[in-house]
Amino acid sequence: MSRTAHGQTIAWGAAGVPLVVALVQTLLALFGYTSGSAGLTPIAEPVLSIPVLFEAAVVFKDSSAVVMGLFLLIALAWAAQGAAMLVVEHREAAFGAATLSAVLFFALFFGVYAPLISADVPVAQLAAFYLVPVCAAALQLFAVATYPWNDVVLEETSGDLGRLEAELANRRAAFDDAFDAQFEGLETLADVAPSGVRDAREGAEEFRARLDDIDEDIAAIRSMSDGEAAQAARASVESELETVDPQARVDELDERFQQALASGIRTEYGEFVVRSEYGERYRAVNLPTNHREVSIPGGADAVHLDHVDEELEALTRSADSYGAVAAAVEAVDAHRQRVRAHIREREASVVDAVSTAENRLDTLETQIDAMDVPFGERVDEVLLAGRDPDLVGARDVRSQLDRAREALHDCRFDDALSTAEDAADRAATLVTTAELLSTLEASLDARHSTVSVPSEVPAGYIEAIVPAIRAGYDGVDAAFDAGRGRIAFTYDDASADPAATDNPAATADRDDAGGAERDSGQAVDDAPSGSVGTGSGRESVRVASPEEVVDGVLYAFREFETGGTGDDRIVQFRLEDLPDAVATRDVLVNVERFAGRQSDLFESVDLQSPEPPGFIEFTPAEGASIERSLSEAHRRFREKYT
């Protein structure tokens, strides 16, 4: 009972006095007792001495059993009101019981005691007697109407809210546990099904936001001062909370995510594709077994890379959580990465070899385009078009490169590499051959009697082109001695330059000429423009411009790149070891001048004599290698003059 409801309790009790009296009378009448036989004479005699009460007792005694039953019902309703107020504090029950008791008592009282109006009873007593039901009904209704129900309701509601908060916390924890267990590994799966992962996370946040809203509603109810409003709001929150099913929500998100994940797996893992540097797909089916098959955790031990999507999709349906799928995806991704790394590693050397061959073929085409000689058409037929069935031309090399790429995409890496390297070697041979042929014009203009052929140039190329050389020049005959590796020229006017022959006497003449020049006292730095005085005391003579001997200089640089004698810092070439087309004054002086100006590549370039038996010596710049310096000088000369 509320501590502030004492007045209401007294009012209820006072209203019950006449009801209790009526109840006692009813019970005595129903069971056939009188006041005397019931031992109530000491109480009954003073009461019955009052005329109105005596007459009322007589009238009541003559009432029917139904009337007595109704009086009994009225007393029970009054007792129920008291219990609803003072014990269970149930407002609706108290109002109902009070209304029933008051209405019945009021109606029944006037109905039963109506005969008292005609009885010989003092009017004052009669009026007072008829006020009894009015006062009783008023007291009952007053008690229930003024009872402090708001405090009671608020107190009850507060207890209910505590229970709801505990239930809310339990459902939140249940959802978090179920979601985390089911959706383990979302970070990994985000790359496979990004939209599915996003929807799952958003769905979880929506559910948690719904719980947060309920929590906020509970907090708002706690601040209410109106008990009825608080109770209604509490009922609404309780109804809302009953619709919150954590496991059902997880199952719903799981169903949607499973569909998105299956679609992502089919897209991402439906077929294993690796493309080469050339944009073509590798035929991974030709890879070794340990590369084309992968073991999937929780699935099969050996699955072909083109069929992992089927295994992963099946795992999404059978696994207890997506953590197992994430582990399987990580294993597949790691294996795929290893396969890609293996392919890239094997691919790199093939691509380098193919690129080297293609660059050399481009160089070959540039050389031949710049070659303005009468036998140029034959050079094009042999070196580029490859029309001689016994000789490999640029077209054959390109076909070979196509085969190398085809073998590469078939994952036959060893075959691809050997084919590409062989093509690069053949392209290098074609370039060397073209460089040699490009110097013949200068050799013929200088009336050389022989030109040496580098050992790396196959005799077949020279044999195929020599007839075109003979046909291209009037008064010149050319013959190729494959055994000695030389092309011999004879002129109708017999004016061949003896300095360009293999005759020892001619070599001695050159030595004597060189000695005479060395005695002339002219220094290198004193040589006029367009002349050379290299060495000690050499006489100044005219030297051809770089544009006039482009092919010869390129040929020379190529020879120098093959290496000479010396240590790590200095390399030296004996002129008598160089091809005749290289060991000429015009070519060597231009090499010395151009390389000597590349201060970032060479510390010094020393041409002892522009004619055999001299030498040319290269000292690379500090920190540079002789191979790189010569190669870079070769490239720079080509870019500048071609």
From TrEMBL:
<feature type="compositionally biased region" description="Low complexity">
    <location>
        <begin position="495"/>
        <end position="507"/>
    </location>
</feature>
<feature type="compositionally biased region" description="Basic and acidic residues">
    <location>
        <begin position="508"/>
        <end position="520"/>
    </location>
</feature>
<feature type="transmembrane region" description="Helical">
    <location>
        <begin position="94"/>
        <end position="116"/>
    </location>
</feature>
<keyword id="KW-1133">Transmembrane helix</keyword>
<feature type="region of interest" description="Disordered">
    <location>
        <begin position="495"/>
        <end position="543"/>
    </location>
</feature>
<feature type="transmembrane region" description="Helical">
    <location>
        <begin position="39"/>
        <end position="60"/>
    </location>
</feature>
<protein>
    <submittedName>
        <fullName>Uncharacterized protein</fullName>
    </submittedName>
</protein>
<keyword id="KW-0472">Membrane</keyword>
<feature type="transmembrane region" description="Helical">
    <location>
        <begin position="67"/>
        <end position="88"/>
    </location>
</feature>
<feature type="transmembrane region" description="Helical">
    <location>
        <begin position="12"/>
        <end position="33"/>
    </location>
</feature>
<keyword id="KW-0812">Transmembrane</keyword>
<feature type="transmembrane region" description="Helical">
    <location>
        <begin position="128"/>
        <end position="149"/>
    </location>
</feature>
